[in-house]
Design a protein that fits this description.
The chain is of the alpha/beta class and 251 residues long. It has one domain: P-loop containing nucleotide triphosphate hydrolases (Rossmann fold). 34% of the residues lie in helices and 29% in strands. It contains 9 helices and 12 strands. Strands 6-7-8-3-9-10 form a 6-stranded mixed β-sheet, with helices on both faces. Strands 2-1-4-5 form a 4-stranded antiparallel β-sheet, covered by helices on one side. A hairpin with a 2-residue loop joins β4 and β5. α3 packs parallel to α5 and α4 packs across α5. The mean pLDDT is 93.
């Protein structure tokens, strides 16, 4: 279990996160929701150990995430970030292979794992293409496949920061399925999304962030109310209950 307690973070004197506490439960998907600037990406960076909080702690099974050996942290925790600065002329299969390095596989095992994740994200036809020549949506699928390939037997936490922002509907749904499959193996997943309907479809737990503070946390039914979402996003949000679950729209 990953436990964040009373996290505070400032940059240039400006509070980005204030007194954030949450738990990521093995086997569950937590979705962070909130408008731009709410602190979602900053929170993921603290949860991953990429940044240290000004105060508070992030513990993975009672161990400080920041203090973990980088190699061990890469085995325990995989993260997809919004910014993927990769300007070298790597082929697609080489990019996906980067995710396998923390797992210390043999050459044959790595090749098999790369083939598997290329297949899972329907990238086989692009495997020999130069990454920098792909479309934005294709690059995002490659990077997601790279991060998912990092999720080995020791992985305990998967963090995803807006992983579907450039994907079409087909690949959004494919990734939602893959995320649920990863969670079903006992990995704790935390995902930043902007699409309320995808969030409701995916989440076991919803966390609403507003101006660096936690507005609410709980199940979809508890947290994603018309009144609360309308206040959070400053638009009128309509919620309709269907057999497939709630649907949200602005009105």
């Amino acid at each position: 279990m990953l436990t964040a307690s009373h996290l505070n973070l400032k940059r240039q004197g400006k509070p980005l996160l204030q007194d954030i506490s949450l738990q990521l439960i093995p086997g569950e998907v937590t979705v962070l929701l909130g408008p731009n600037g709410a602190g979602k990406s900053s929170l993921l960076s603290l949860l991953s150990g990429l940044y240290s909080p000004d105060s508070g702690s992030v513990l993975l099974d009672e161990q400080s995430v920041v203090a973990l050996d980088p190699q061990l942290r890469a085995c325990y925790l995989a993260m997809y970030t919004q910014q993927q600065p990769l300007n070298f002329s790597f082929q697609v299969d080489e990019v996906v292979a980067l995710g396998c390095y923390p797992l210390q596989l043999s050459a044959a095992e790595m090749a098999e794992r790369v083939r598997d994740y290329l297949s899972q994200f329907e990238l086989e036809q692009l495997s020999q293409r130069q990454y920098t020549r792909l479309s934005g949506g294709e690059q995002q699928r490659v990077q997601v496949a790279r991060v998912m390939a990092q999720v080995g037997s020791q992985c305990r936490v998967l963090l995803l920061d807006e992983p579907v922002s450039e994907m079409d509907l087909k690949y959004q749904q494919l990734l939602m399925q893959r995320i649920r499959q990863v969670a079903a193996t006992g990995v704790a997943v935390c995902c930043v999304l902007h699409d309320l309907n995808l969030a409701a479809q995916l989440a076991d737990q919803i966390v609403l962030l507003q101006n660096g503070r936690m507005l609410a946390a709980g199940t979809v039914g508890e947290v994603m109310t018309e009144a609360r979402l309308s206040d959070l996003y400053q638009v009128s949000v309509r919620k309709v209950e269907t057999d497939a679950g709630p649907l949200f729209s602005s009105r």
